[in-house]
Design goal:
- With 164 residues, the protein is α/β, with parallel strands linked by helices.
- It has a 6-stranded parallel β-sheet.
- α2 packs parallel to α6.
- The termini are far apart.
């Protein structure tokens, strides 16, 4: 079953959970052949019920000891732009769509997403453009990120965040 896994990490990002479960976003996922949506909602106020999204199988949870298995089983990962979530997904070799929380002040997430996008490792958008991105995205343009090069990733983060 073609699956999308969405993670917000340990944060609260209710706007993303609300956006991806709207009928138009679900329809965009269905049009691409996705049949299952697994949501890791973190500390947010929203925890959608399994029957709240007609036409797609929905599972939602707050936290697990590890999301590695969810990432491994996913055909697409949608994530907030946290460095840990990005690194885990890219390290697993999964296509990644990052949704930047544009309501954060001093938004380093946007810088990280832009740099990883510029290097063709992921696609990114905001909640306001998520549905359109789901409709038009081309995952075939994505290039693998070499997960064994953790030192390079640290240097990359320093550059992306303007620390070097």
């Amino acid at each position: 079953m073609k699956t999308v896994f969405l993670t917000v990490g340990t944060t609260s990002f209710d706007e993303l959970i609300e956006t991806v479960t709207r009928p138009e976003a679900v329809q965009a996922l269905k049009a691409r052949g996705y049949e299952r949506l697994v949501l890791q909602v973190g500390r947010g106020n929203l925890l959608p019920a399994a029957d709240s999204c007609p036409h797609i199988e929905l599972e939602a949870f707050r936290f697990k000891d590890s999301i590695a298995e969810d990432v491994r089983r996913a055909d697409l990962v949608i994530s907030h732009a946290g460095a840990g979530s990005c690194l885990e997904t890219l390290g697993a070799g999964k296509p990644l769509l990052v949704v930047v929380n544009d309501r954060l002040m001093d938004n380093h997430q946007l810088e990280l997403a832009r740099q990883l996008h510029a290097d063709s490792h992921l696609l990114y958008c905001t909640c306001s453009t998520l549905t359109e991105t789901l409709r038009t995205m081309d995952l075939s343009v994505l290039q693998p990120f070499q997960p064994a090069q953790t030192k390079n990733f640290a240097h990359f983060l320093d550059r992306a965040l303007g620390l070097r």
